[in-house]
Amino acid sequence: MTEIDILLPFGLPPQELAGDLLKELDTPALALLASRTKSGDGNHQDIEFQRALPHELWMARQFGMEDGLRKNGSAPIAWALMAAMRITPRPGAWFVLQPVHIHIARDHLVLTDPRQLELSDEESRTLFDVAAPLFAEAGKQLLYGDASTWFVEAEDWRGLVTSSPDAASGHNIDIWMPKGERERDWRKVQNDVQMHWFDHAVNEAREARRLKPVNSVWLWGGPAHCTSDRTRHYDMAFNLSGSMQAFRGLVPGYAEAADGTTLLSSAAGRNMLLLDDLLEPALANDWARWLANMQHLEDTWFTPLLHALKSGKIDRLSLITTHDSRISRFTATRLSLRKFWVKPSLASLCP
Question: What is the pTM of this model?
């Protein structure tokens, strides 16, 4: 049997824009998959305030990290992410540390989506070399992962409750900052880094090119250590990218798929497909780009997957889609597609 769970972050448009956005879409395959679901499916779940977005909560549940997320706020992905990057650290309480831009709003500070930084490896390594001694002075080891992802070992920060940068992006950072007994220690190191980076040559050069300066660091993603022995929920996962690549270290098989061909040729068993094309434009409130990316997903994924379901190559296809406070699941089978009396519609995507 071939089953595919498709995770589509921000496939649900915001309530105030849903009607106008959905009218602009020409996505008959998605409309059919979302409307002709099996009996009892098509459910919606509203999410109360969390330090992670609904799609991150779903991933944490799938990969055995829900307990760590409840305790620490954000999913404890540091160890898995290091494994995916072929980094073998010493034992300890490891967190993800990301260089970020925080801007001043009218009366508060706001975290900018780290993807918007366009930080080069050379810039990141230079800033890392400035930050590492500051963390060392505080008794913390800093490791370099890639331009946007570093790691810090901090046993005495184990109790800090942190927030994922995607959940905090675009918001007043006060309620999203690390909280706990050692939060003052964290803020001292963060402030030291901010001061040393304030007029650094890297930032001066970036501002001259009209790029956002890198003026702070964001701590999250630790410290619980999960192993793949607890998380073999899928036979294969496809198209993981961005911070979500951490979870590929927990999946026995992993493949990047540019289109549906790779997936459908190797999808026996239970599989997961992450389509995160809508995440960045939604966080940036760029709804023109959101529409364009949704149209691309229709052509590249939803249409071939619908054909595969109709032809029997796939037995069950579940679409798990979200916005910032809701998660919805729509499951279609070859049998449910025969509900000819149900008109294809995107109405079920309305929050």
Answer: 0.88
